[in-house]
Every structure is written in C-alpha cells, then in structure tokens.
User: What shape does this take?
Amino acid sequence: MNATITKRVDITHDLWKIWIKGEDSFNFRPGQYCTIGYGGVERPYSIVSAPHESEIELFLELVPPQTGVLTPTLFRLQPGAQLQMRPRAKGIFVLKENYVNHLMVATVTGIAPYVSMLRQYLTRATSSHKFFVLVGASFKNEFAYNVELQSIAEERPNLLKFIPTISRPDEMTNEGWNGETGRVNTIVEKYIDLFNLEQASTLVYACGHPSMISSVRASANNMGFAFQEERFWKSDE
Assistant: This one.
C-alpha cells in the first residue's frame, strides 16, 4: 500500500526519525517490523510506535551509499514524500509474557522495538512484569529516546530500570556525561547481578549491531538465561 511521510525529526547527522501514515490500516504487535520501499527497493525497519498510535514511527540510521541501498534515499526525503509499505508486519521479536523480568539490550536504533513494547505495556492495567533496558551508543546525542525512557523510569521505578551507556567517554562530544560508560555488551553481567535477576524468571533480549548481539548471547548462555535477538546489519543491502 502507499504511505506518506508526515513528520521528520533529525537527531544527528546520520540519525533521524520519521512518521508515516498508510492509506489503509496497519496492524502489528510491539517488537515487529514493517517493510517500506521507495523506487522499487524495500527494506524492513523495526517499529517504534505502539499499535494504538495513529502513525508508524521509525528511528533510522544513515548507511553509507557504498553499502546501503535504501537509507541514503530515505535520508533525502521530507514530509509529504510517498513510500510503499507492505500491508502486514512481520517478526517474532515480541514480548514473551511468561517471563516476569525482561532484560533488553540495544545499540542506538536497536532501541526501537523496546520503546514500542513499553508504550503498549503502559496502556494496560497490569504491572506484573519488570523491564530492565540497557542501551549503548558512542555519543550521548545518539540516544533518541532517553528523555522518554528516563521519565518512565522515574515515574514507574518498579516497572522500568533504564541504563544508557557511552563507549567513548573521553570524546569532546560527550563532555558532561556522568552516566554509565563502556560498550553495552560489557555491562550486561554487571547489571544482571545488580538487579538480582534469576534465570527462571528472566528473558534477555538483544537488538542492534551483530557483534553486540553475539557478545550478549554468549553472556546469557554462559549464565543460563533464555535469549532472543533482532539483528541489525550495518548494510541495508
């Protein structure tokens, strides 16, 4: 079906958000992805918005032209541009509610499915689950959802613990940062211990860069935790 870009917000020189509205209804589960296209090229993107929202929100990273096919084109598009969108969402990277604790690990745009899950969960009357979100980036300005997630963590401390970490704390861009430091995969075991997470009641999720996912999977397996992943490649080919 056809879809229109209704809004755009630039985060950094290579990260931005868009909102798109399809000509027909679009149903999905939080954590799934949509497939959008332009000029005959299609690629899947995890959905940030929750199902009750009226538009589809995406958080995108510009992939260099030598490796990326679609994102360099999408980066040039402004509100009003027309896209194609497959009518059905796909993906099995969704909330597994049989676990009480959900340890969610991400790099940059990998935060997308977790935001969708949390936004939807907040509309429910239940509060029987707990979320622990660890997100890593090189620079503090790459955290596009820090304000939203930190606000939830402050308002609902029994629901969400949120830990952002930067891998280059000595860079000038990160001046003034007083939070966690190090690659996000290197702090997973630390926070499993700090949060007293137990294997039987906890599912570990990883979404983002393949090397991060491989590292987190190894840690989860070594510690006896169940694990599921959503892999983002540096190329969108």
About this structure: The domain at 2-85 is CATH 2.40.30.10 (Elongation Factor Tu (Ef-tu); domain 3). The longest helix spans residues 210-223. Residues 136 and 230 are 15 Å apart (CA to CA).
